[in-house]
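Priority: medium. Attachment 1 of 2:
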């Protein structure tokens, strides 16, 4: 046994670092009274790495100027999920999880957005926190059923700013269309809409009526593929392909508007975003590049319009042909959200002639007059067309 003891016997366990030792030399805004409710969670950590991560989380909150969270025993009764556009947590930080293309799940306790540091301080896994939040939302969702609107579209009845998040609770809606492919929309946090494919025009109409009633969440429609929600990919000649493109353009324009507010003005001028329609009604996004200084051009646009410093139109060209100008290379701008490139100089007339043209200067002037002056002519009635009042909200000049 003595021989085996040499291999089996281990030395004494290394002493775990104390919180005082881990915080030595650090200046934090949290006093002993603030930390006291959380010390039990810290003392339960039985390895040095977890204790070090716990202490580092205090520093992470201090850097952001955030107070400590409430203890988990209290927070678990209040924690709730919410859906936000994908760019929101990218810009603001906080815990976030991809759940739907273009949207993220994040967690909230009262007015506080749950931080990764909160989960560490609580010693709670991401999955456990999400599961608890969904369970809390489920309890809030009983005893109500989806409302069937006169159009045949179904709408969530809760009106508590958490309607969109209930998309994550399939038991609530899985039986609405048992034998039909479901489509949905979440134009803002307080609205969840469902419709079968045959009622897609009515669903677009319902979305248009909700625009502006809350911060835009996602204008574009989604559909269910297996166990996943995906942006509805309706290809031409599908009658709803153009309305879906226009709704996507609205989402892009909105994020570019917000993004432009965070861009350093010293980098240059942000290209303004708008949309136009081709003769067959196809909506296209246009980024307008004004001469006279560096331009911050979004990569996700169909067309680029060029104007002089005085605003005189020079023509509109397809964005995909811009790389032809080898001497005019853009530099990627460090910014959250959609990619932007910074171009130091305005392309010359000869360079613009190398691009694939969409509209010449005169045609561009006519387009600009149509956007800023007379309303676009209304098409002949079509049950599958985008509603007229939606056309009034989409496809107009919109600066970012």
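Attachment 2 of 2:
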């Amino acid at each position: 046994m003595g021989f085996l003891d040499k291999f089996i016997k281990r030395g004494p366990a290394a002493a775990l670092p104390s919180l005082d030792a881990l915080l030595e030399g650090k200046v934090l805004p949290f006093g002993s009274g603030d930390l006291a409710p959380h010390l039990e969670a810290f003392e339960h950590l039985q390895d040095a790495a977890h204790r070090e991560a716990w202490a580092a989380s205090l520093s992470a909150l201090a850097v952001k100027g955030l107070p400590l969270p409430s203890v988990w025993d209290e927070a678990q009764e209040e924690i709730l999920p919410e859906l936000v556009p994908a760019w929101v947590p990218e810009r603001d930080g906080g815990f976030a999880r991809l759940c739907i293309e273009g949207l993220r799940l994040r967690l909230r306790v009262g007015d506080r957005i749950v931080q990764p540091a909160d989960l560490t301080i609580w010693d709670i896994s991401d999955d456990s926190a999400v599961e608890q939040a969904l369970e809390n939302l489920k309890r809030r969702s009983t005893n109500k059923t989806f409302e069937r609107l006169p159009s045949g579209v179904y709408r969530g009845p809760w009106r508590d700013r958490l309607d969109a998040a209930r998309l994550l609770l399939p038991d609530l809606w899985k039986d609405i269309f048992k034998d039909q492919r479901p489509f949905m929309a979440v134009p803002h946090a307080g609205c969840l809409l469902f419709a079968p494919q045959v009622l897609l025009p009515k669903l677009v109409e319902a979305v248009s009526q909700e625009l502006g009633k809350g911060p835009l969440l996602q204008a574009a429609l989604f559909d269910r593929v297996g166990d996943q929600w995906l942006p509805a990919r309706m290809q031409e000649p599908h009658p709803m392909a153009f309305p879906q493109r226009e709704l996507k353009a609205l989402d892009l324009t909105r994020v570019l508007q917000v993004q432009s507010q965070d861009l350093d003005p010293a980098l240059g001028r942000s290209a303004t975003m708008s949309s136009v329609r081709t003769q067959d009604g196809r909506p296209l996004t246009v980024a307008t590049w004004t001469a006279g200084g560096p331009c911050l051009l979004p990569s996700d646009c169909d067309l680029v319009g060029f104007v002089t410093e005085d605003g005189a139109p020079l023509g509109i060209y397809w964005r995909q042909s811009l790389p032809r100008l080898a001497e005019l290379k853009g530099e990627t701008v460090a910014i959250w959200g959609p990619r932007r490139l910074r171009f130091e100089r305005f392309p010359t007339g000869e360079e613009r002639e190398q691009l694939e043209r969409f509209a010449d200067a005169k045609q561009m002037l006519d387009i600009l007059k149509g956007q800023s002056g007379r309303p676009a002519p209304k098409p002949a009635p079509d049950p599958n067309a985008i509603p007229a009042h939606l056309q009034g909200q989409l496809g107009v000049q919109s600066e970012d």
